[in-house]
Design brief:
By secondary structure, the chain is of the alpha+beta class. 38% of the residues lie in helices and 17% in strands. It has 2 helices and 3 strands. A hairpin with a 4-residue loop joins strand 2 and strand 3. Helix 1 packs across helix 2. The longest helix is centred in the last third of the chain and has 18 residues. The radius of gyration is 12 Å and the shape is globular.
Length: 71
């Protein structure tokens, strides 16, 4: 895998029908801090001490939260 050029990840959640705040709040309850930037944009920042497994865990938590909130 090529090395990433930044530690910032922006996600547009408009297609989910959910607000960025609702997703961020639900992730916060799981111990994952992500910023809501406007109605439908999230901003995540990774750190050097976060492992690949932890990043994948956060990604799966994001999927789980979106699926749960859309029910």
């Amino acid at each position: 895998d090529p090395a990433p050029e930044t530690n910032l990840v922006f996600v547009n959640v408009a297609a989910t029908g959910l607000t960025a705040k609702a997703i961020a709040d639900a992730l916060e309850k799981r111990g994952i801090n992500i910023g809501a930037m406007g109605a439908t944009r999230l901003r995540a920042v990774t750190h050097l001490d976060i492992s690949r497994a932890q990043a994948e865990e956060a990604g799966q938590a994001f999927i789980d939260v979106v699926n749960k909130l859309r029910q």
